[in-house]
């Protein structure tokens, strides 16, 4: 079982979707399962759930990898049954949620399925350690093998000037 470090809501990394959902608790009371309102956050690899959006510690989290998401109208018998979805993974706990609306439930399922498709395809490498540095080309802008896309990404740099007729980048030492 891999250990996912608990993080405050603000530190969960690149957030793909977040919002309040009702999560079905594992414990069954005399009246059946209880639904608890939770602030849920989905990032690239992990699903976190918190007591509210300002919480410092998650109530729980799990790696989204190998899970599948689908609408699950059978989870409730009341008027909110079309707002339900579940996350399942063979051999692991099933997570059951109720969204504020049927459209919102569909959006959660779509986002999770999209993410799972990305995780299963090897075309999008992702290393959590480098998360902050993925699009940071500023350090390399003075190196010899600077490519032209770096200058277009960093247009607010004062030393990058483009003349109207000059479409070629002038490389250092090639003037």
UniProtKB/TrEMBL annotation:
<feature type="domain" description="PH">
    <location>
        <begin position="14"/>
        <end position="117"/>
    </location>
</feature>
<feature type="compositionally biased region" description="Acidic residues">
    <location>
        <begin position="130"/>
        <end position="140"/>
    </location>
</feature>
<dbReference type="GO" id="GO:0005886">
    <property type="term" value="C:plasma membrane"/>
</dbReference>
<keyword id="KW-0597">Phosphoprotein</keyword>
<keyword id="KW-0472">Membrane</keyword>
<feature type="region of interest" description="Disordered">
    <location>
        <begin position="130"/>
        <end position="175"/>
    </location>
</feature>
<dbReference type="InterPro" id="IPR001849">
    <property type="entry name" value="PH_domain"/>
</dbReference>
<feature type="compositionally biased region" description="Acidic residues">
    <location>
        <begin position="158"/>
        <end position="168"/>
    </location>
</feature>
<dbReference type="GO" id="GO:0005634">
    <property type="term" value="C:nucleus"/>
</dbReference>
<dbReference type="Pfam" id="PF00169">
    <property type="entry name" value="PH"/>
</dbReference>
<feature type="compositionally biased region" description="Polar residues">
    <location>
        <begin position="141"/>
        <end position="157"/>
    </location>
</feature>
<dbReference type="InterPro" id="IPR037781">
    <property type="entry name" value="SKAP_fam"/>
</dbReference>
<keyword id="KW-0963">Cytoplasm</keyword>
<keyword id="KW-0539">Nucleus</keyword>
<protein>
    <submittedName>
        <fullName>SKAP1 protein</fullName>
    </submittedName>
</protein>
<keyword id="KW-1003">Cell membrane</keyword>
<dbReference type="InterPro" id="IPR011993">
    <property type="entry name" value="PH-like_dom_sf"/>
</dbReference>
<dbReference type="GO" id="GO:0005737">
    <property type="term" value="C:cytoplasm"/>
</dbReference>
């Amino acid at each position: 079982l891999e250990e996912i470090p608990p993080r405050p809501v603000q530190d969960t990394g690149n957030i793909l979707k977040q919002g309040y959902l009702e999560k079905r608790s594992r414990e069954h009371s005399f009246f059946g399962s209880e639904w608890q309102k939770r602030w849920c956050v989905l990032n690239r690899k992990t699903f976190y759930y918190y007591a509210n959006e300002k919480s410092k510690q998650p109530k729980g989290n799990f790696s989204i990898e190998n899970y599948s998401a689908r609408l699950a109208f059978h989870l409730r018998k009341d008027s909110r049954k079309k707002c339900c979805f579940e996350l399942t993974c063979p051999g692991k706990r099933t997570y059951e949620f109720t969204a504020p609306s049927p459209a919102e439930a569909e959006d959660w399922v779509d986002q999770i399925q999209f993410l799972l498709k990305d995780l299963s395809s090897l075309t999008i490498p992702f290393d959590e350690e480098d998360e902050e540095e993925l699009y940071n080309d500023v350090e390399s802008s003075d190196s010899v093998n600077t490519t032209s896309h770096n200058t277009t990404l960093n247009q607010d740099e004062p030393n990058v000037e483009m003349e109207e007729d000059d479409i070629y980048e002038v490389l250092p030492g090639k003037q």
